[in-house]
Structures are given as C-alpha cells and as structure tokens.
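Sample pair:
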Amino acid sequence: MAIALSAGTLCHCVVFLPMMFGEKNIITIYLSQLAVTISVSLLASWLVAVSLIPMLSARMKTPPAVKSPFISRLQDRYAKALRWTLLHRGWSVAGILFISLVSVWPMTHTQGGGDESDPDEINIFYQWKGSYSKEEMGKEVARVEDFVNAHRKDFHIKRVYSRYSEQGWAQTRLFLDIDDAELSKKIEEEVRKGLPQSARAKIGIGWPGGQGSEGQGIRFSLVGDSTQTLRELADDIVPMLARDPKLRDVRVDTGDANAELAVRVDRERAAAYGFSAQQVAQFVGMALRGSSLRDFHRDDVEIPVNVRFAGSESYGIEDLSSFMVRTSSGAEVPLLAMVDVDVNPAANSIQRLNRQTMLRVEAGLAKDVAMDAARKSVEATLDGVQFPPGYGYTFAGGGFNINFDGMQQMVNSIFIALILMLVIMAAVFESLLFPAAIMSCVLFSIFGVYWLFWLTGTEMNIMAVIGILVLMGVVVNNGIVMIEHINNLRRRGMARTDALVEGSRERLRPIMMTMGTAILAMIPIALNTETADGMPPYHPMARAIAGGLAFSTVVSLLFLPTIYAILDDLRMGTARWYDAHAACRWTARCWKADRRRTR
C-alpha cells in the first residue's frame, strides 16, 4: 500500500500548488493557508501510516477475523454486478454515456454566482457625508426606523436592528418572517423606493464597505495616481451608471467622510503684518495640535510632554476667530486675518491596488438581473468613458467573494492541477494508461457536485469551486487504491477479469469506510447555512465535497474496472499494431538487403 498511499497524498497536496504560486489576491492567500493546513496534516498522516502503524501492528496480537454478514453479502453482490459489467462491456459503455449525458441537465440548471444573500434579511447602509455626532446620526437612523416600522405588516418585518458608533458607522438590518427569495426582492425594491432622503448621508440597500455577499451587488475599482482625478472620474461615471435599469444604489465606496478643517496661509497678508508663512503655520499648529516640551526624566523613566489648549480637538472656525497673534511691535493681529479656513469632507483612508490609488464603485442589482449581465452593462458604460493616460478600471481586488477574474483564475488552477496530478500518477505507475482511468473519477465527482447543487438549490460560487479543488485530491484515492491492488493481482498471474473483480471486491470495504467518514464529516458544515458578517458561506464547499465523493464513489466502483479494461485493450491493440508494423519494416529491410546481395 505504500505506493498507493504516497500517490494519493501527493495528488492531494499538489492541487493547491497553482493557487499558491499564482497571482496574489485574497483568494490565493486564503487557499495558501488552507493548503498548508491540509498538506501538513496529510503528510503527517502519511508518515504515521507507513511507519508507526506497521510497527505497532507487528508488535500487537493479530485480532481474530470478524466478518459482517451485511458486508459479505454486499461484496458478493458487488462482485457479481461487476463481472456482469465486464462481460457486457457494451451495456457498461452505454451506462457511462447515459450518466454523462443526464448529468448535463444539472450542470446547465445550476445557478452560478447569483444572489447569496439571505431572503429573510435586508441591510440598509448609511454613507455619511461628514463628521457628525452620535446624536445627529441617531436622528437619521430614527427616521429610517420610523419608515420601516410604519410598514411592518406590508414588508413582513419580524424585527428591526440598528447600530451606530461614534466612529461614524451605522447600519440598520431588517429581519423578515419569509423564506421566499422572489418576495424578498420585491420587498427590497419597495423599501429602497420609500427610504427617506438625507442631506447628511447616502442611504440605500446593501452592505457598507463591500461587506456581505458578493451576490448583493457588483463592484469595480477606478485606478490611477491622483485621488482627486479619480474622484472627478467617479463624479462623471456614477450618474451614468445610476441611469442603468440593471443597477441600484450606485455609490463610491470612500468610507464615511470626516469633516476636515483646512487652513491655508495667505502669504501676502501674513507678510503685510510682518510674519512668514512658516511662522503662521507654527501658530496654527500650536493652536490645534499643541506644542512639544522637554521630556520628563526620572531614573530610567522618560515621558514625552506635550501641551495644548483645552478642547483643541474639537476646535472650529468660530474658535480660531478668538486667537490673536502678537507682532514684534507689540500689536495684536487676529489669526484669521492671515489664513483662509474651510471645513471640507475628507475620506478617512486611501485604498491602493497594485501600488496604484484605487477608488471603489459599488452598485446593487435590480430584480432578476444576473451578475454577468450587470458586469457587461457596466463594462459597456465604462468603455465609452475617456480615461486620462494612466487611469482605468478593473474588477479585480473586489474582496474575498466571487468575482469573474477570481473565478477564471480558479478554473485555470484546476486545469493545471489536473495536469500535475496526471504527471504524478504517470511517474508512480510508470504508465499513462492507469492515470487516465483514475482521472475518470474526477469527472464523475464533478457530475456529483452539480447533482447535489441542483437538488438542494445551492449556487455555484467561489467557495464551491474551492470545494471542487479539494475534492479532486480526494476522489483519486479511490482509483489509486483500487488499481494498484488490481495490478498486484495481475502480477501474481491472475487473469485480468478475475483480477478486476477480486481486486475491486477486496477494496470495496476500505473505500466505503474512508469515503463514508469523509462525507459524514461534511454533513454538519453542509447543513449550516448561517455565516458571520463579512465571512464567506462554507456550506457550498462542504456540499461540493460531499456530493462529489458520494456520486464518484458509487459510479467509479461500478464503471472504473470497465474503463480500465477498455484502456488496457487499447494499449494491447496499439502494442500489437506497433509490433506488427515494426516487423513489416524489418522484413522489408531484410528483403531489400537480400536483393542487394543477390545483385
């Protein structure tokens, strides 16, 4: 079993390599952490399996063989069914084709990348246009709560939950007593139309700062060098996108704006009073930030000392008007006589993507609008915009959840992982025949993923693709364990059909045990559809693993020996044709040589 264990462990670890060494984003970082965890645990398990367990087994007393009547009957019936499929290969091929064709139905009817938001929950965001007190924010939140409370029965509202903080963050969540996605979308549109307008904040449906599931909206980023230029571009683009019927609540995600006190020194007026711009700036800094004094020392303790006016952290223009500056002649000059003061809204952070300044634009989706249709509509609008040199847009860097660039990267990684698995198995088995048969398990597992997703109404998202990536390394273990044992039986002189039947029969129990425990471990995660705020849902990944394992195990146990026999016949037929062709060429060369000697 050492070869089978080594090949299975390596195949399971190698599937993560394309993502670990690919383009760095939050998905690849997450997968790298997942890969390290799984790979280290698998390698440790492999080391124990090939060293500690054989040693302990040699030292322990061999337990008496206990045969379960149920397992024995199951193995006997499985052997009879398997022998029938090998003797009636045409029916087996027809069954494989039938399963492949029927599996196209769930693949075409499984939704992908759609709305993953809970139908019983609606989130209302507040994007503040300035710095406001907790009381002022509370008034705006109360207006929204008054509106939704007045329509509790119409909107099927079970409870309303609002929170806001002194850091300028607010949110209102509506919990509905329905479980119908269509009705939820209809209620969401009615809530959006009736939300009160506010001069202090932009209020809409969605999650602030790109939180929540990607299915609730679409995001893209404007990238360039200057934040001011990006803001000007956003001011032109947002109204254009707001007119698109496929989009809702188009906004620029600059975070909640703070009120910034901007002080600009008028050099000419300062010089007229006998001050330089640097001196006036020092006066302003002393008034607003204070001044540093000599550090306080006692023994080994050193404490920095700063002094500033009481209440300077909340100074406004009216406070600065009372400050006077004394000239060298002793005259007092108002500080505001030498500066221009304005209160401007300012973002509290600057976002960057690939070392470029980034400004993210977000929008919700209208009812029954798919993500790919919304993206095409946004791209059509943006392609008509004249961007300055060095500026553009990208859908990358939108967060953990699904985006089209991330999905394409995952698909490419799966393709590369398949090639790496094929290379490893070809090196272990020293043949391309057996890896090709084993790779059919991967195809059957993908069919199983879509069957379970279609039956449970689960949508194919980025977490499901991660589940498929993990699944690929697991399902090949069935084929590796089975085919390695079949090869060992054939090396002992057993006929191919008998080796296929007996080898599969003997490996039925361990395959069912390993796959059964793996599927049972996924059930709690697959049934738990609740997620924390801002975290991805894990149930699609668990369902992908469980569904793929269950379907692939059943189909592979029944049809993998047939695929093995077909490929083995193809190999032997090719070898006979090559030998016959080589013999003909050798005969022709000998005939020509004889003719030359005769002449």
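Residues 539-598 form the longest helix (60 residues).
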